[in-house]
From TrEMBL:
<protein>
    <submittedName>
        <fullName>NADPH-dependent oxidoreductase</fullName>
    </submittedName>
</protein>
<dbReference type="InterPro" id="IPR005025">
    <property type="entry name" value="FMN_Rdtase-like_dom"/>
</dbReference>
<dbReference type="InterPro" id="IPR029039">
    <property type="entry name" value="Flavoprotein-like_sf"/>
</dbReference>
<feature type="domain" description="NADPH-dependent FMN reductase-like">
    <location>
        <begin position="7"/>
        <end position="158"/>
    </location>
</feature>
<dbReference type="GO" id="GO:0016491">
    <property type="term" value="F:oxidoreductase activity"/>
</dbReference>
<dbReference type="Pfam" id="PF03358">
    <property type="entry name" value="FMN_red"/>
</dbReference>
């Protein structure tokens, strides 16, 4: 079986090259996936000039079609988002809105093109919102055809009302590191199962 691939959609509000805790955790997940023979890349969505909308291509320089091509070429898709006011970032919500178009994009057997792809989540923030963010994003990813693995999220939430970012935490919290490794193992396992046995025709 050929090598698996993963794409991290980094939904930080910060453009590159500004440091991003979402990027840090996303890269740690890619590193953990590499231990299971999964190659990967990370895209900082805010740098791609993604337009608002719910179509696969909103025209006029929309950056989503390029991201979408890479997403459809990937076996595992990770949304990495910070928490703001207990919510996924606005960039993350734009990504979810763009994924809405996949509801009407199907193959010859009526299956969404995202069927057979594993959806994962990486969340960072200084508020107690990780479970709420996970619930919102996972519902949307499931709706548009992604399959969620067991223990399908890794996250770090710092002490409330403190300025510490995940990227600045040294050493990394052992629990987050272990959760990231578990997520990588489960995601790679599920992706291989889905590749070898696809969903039935719709």
């Amino acid at each position: 079986m050929s090598e698996l691939s993963a794409l991290v959609l980094n939904c930080s509000l910060k453009p590159a090259p500004t440091a991003s805790s979402s990027e840090t955790l996303g890269q740690e997940l890619l590193d953990a996936l590499a231990e299971h023979d999964v190659r990967g890349e990370q895209v900082r969505v805010v740098d791609e000039r993604v337009s608002f909308g719910v179509q696969t291509d909103e025209g006029d320089g929309d950056g989503w079609p390029s991201i979408r091509r890479r997403m459809l070429d990937s076996d595992i898709v990770v949304i990495a988002t910070p928490i703001w006011l207990g919510q996924p970032s606005s960039v993350c919500k734009v990504v979810l809105e763009r994924l809405d178009a996949e509801l009407s994009e199907t193959d010859d057997e009526g299956r969404m093109l995202t069927y057979g792809k594993v959806g994962c989540l990486a969340v960072v923030g200084n508020e107690d919102g990780a479970h709420h963010v996970t619930a919102e994003v996972y519902q949307a990813m499931s709706d548009v055809g992604f399959t969620i693995p067991a223990n399908g999220v890794t996250y770090w939430v710092g002490e409330a009302m403190q300025p510490t970012d995940y990227a600045d935490v040294d050493p990394r919290p052992q629990k987050t590191a272990q959760t990231t490794k578990t997520l990588a193992a489960n995601a790679a396992h599920l992706a291989r199962l889905l590749r070898s046995s696809s969903y039935p025709a719709a």
